[in-house]
């Protein structure tokens, strides 16, 4: 969960996610989830905004330690679900009552109970698509390249190591002071990454 | 985990303090029951048919809540859920009223002939369908089945209540393992007996009609009703400063999710039952809905659509609503009211096919049965810990957080 998906939300979703400048930022390695958790709390309290935590598995409560706002995904799902249900109902009403009225088993043209199953299914379908595509979009996925992958140490993020990355375009980022801060929080190693 | 394992509760943290206002609730319940019973006796003497139907609705309402509670606890054991341990004792207290419910069933025995057309002497003589159903729908077998239902429910209820209470002192994890082993078979027994009880007591009010979904429909209503009651009780206990540090927003959130999910489940089952009959349009199936789509009963049908599904579905969708005790309680009270309307709508058109005819006896019967129910539940709550103190999963439940 925390891997890649917990990137804090930026106002312009479709803008270029990568910082401009010689450095992408820094990546710091932590040995245990607890170290990472407490380091995240300190980074959050220090006022950083363009940063992320990366773990091999979901770490309980990390979003709180990082100070992440709640995702807008539920609203996307709701709007998509209602859109799907409306479209499904509207299509059936248009076909059966307006465009091509047929008497089916002696029922009125506009027999709304018969429309409910498809309305329900389309609502669910659109909501599910909204959830999957919305999640991908909010996470800016698929993303084929990311400067973090230049780091050799970072490869262990899917194995047994825990990372904090702070991007250079964070207003509080300082190429000299920020690595020191992370080291003081217990980082095993801190690496400056090029763009 | 070691840090969590050390979290334990002292009994005084999880019981009603001696000077707490909730200590008066058993007396208030008993008072309500007496007033209701007096009302039933005075008014019912002049209108026994109305009394029996009103009593049946209220009896089914409170019995269904207790049965929903038994199902809930059995599912908790079978699924080995940990989040719900802190609210399990409330469920256990509620379903322990089931043996007492057998006593409240007794008044209905005097009204079998008023309630059920098939029980009229000679009803089957000129009615081929009733004659064909007579081997099942006859008074002795009806009574025998009722005895079997109550025996099965009471046995399961007592087994689980006793086991859980004993664990409070023994702390023996083997109790949990044993009760888990019985939970699967008990769920099967519950599903069968509850379905047949719904067929006997509600469906056979219209003896020519049948629905193969009726048992599930009754279960859906009883389960969502119980979750609503549990949510209301958890919220009320927060306000009364009972378990207010033990039941957290995380537990309320999960109760809210259950309430939301089973609101949708009820609607799914209710609509499926209606839809197939409406679509096929066979007279022997549509007769039940025809009575409920005529006159003022149609308004009740629409009220159920909007009130038992539409409004609570959107109300309970959001996260914040489920996590706050006050907003969750509003949803719970609403669903409970709709569950009552649902049962009323199932039973009453048999007595008043011409339209909705509310009666003072409805109120009196509700007070009488409800007073007994509230009195019994709160009386039990005074005598016991309000959470299973030494359940092996309690620490997990206390520390539970929604991801």
Count the strands of chain B?
A: 0
Into which percent range does the helicity of residues of chain B fall?
over 70%
Number of helices of chain A: 5
Strand order of the largest sheet of chain A: 2-3-1-4
Q: What's the total number of strands of chain A?
A: 4
Q: What structural category do the secondary elements of chain A indicate?
A: alpha+beta
- Which oligomerization state do the chains in this entry correspond to? heterodimer
Mean pLDDT of chain B: 94
SSE topology sketch:
The complex is a heterodimer of chains A (195) and B (403).
Chain A: E1 23-30, H1 33-45, E2 51-54, H2 62-66, H3 73-99, H4 112-138, E3 162-167, H5 177-184, E4 189-194
Antiparallel strand pairs in A: 1-3, 1-4, 2-3
Helix pairs in contact in A: 3-4
Chain B: H1 2-5, H2 25-46, H3 48-79, H4 85-95, H5 98-109, H6 112-115, H7 128-133, H8 139-170, H9 173-201, H10 214-239, H11 249-280, H12 283-292, H13 297-315, H14 319-323, H15 325-347, H16 360-382, H17 394-398
What does this 3D model show about the protein?
The complex is a heterodimer of chains A (about 200) and B (about 400). Chain A has a domain at about 75-140. Chain A is an alpha+beta fold and about 200 residues long. The radius of gyration of chain A is 24 Å and the shape is elongated. Chain A has five helices and four strands. A four-stranded antiparallel sheet of chain A has the order 2-3-1-4. In chain A, helix 3 (about 75-100) runs antiparallel to helix 4. By secondary structure, chain B is mainly α. Chain B has one domain (about 1-400). Chain B has helices at about 1-5, 25-45, 50-80, 85-95, 100-110, 110-115, 130-135, 140-170, 175-200, 215-240, 250-280, 285-290, 295-315, 320-325, 325-345, 360-380, 395-400. The radius of gyration of chain B is 22 Å and the shape is globular. Chain B starts with a helix and ends in a 5-residue tail after the last helix. The interface of A and B includes residues 61, 78, 113 and 114 of A.
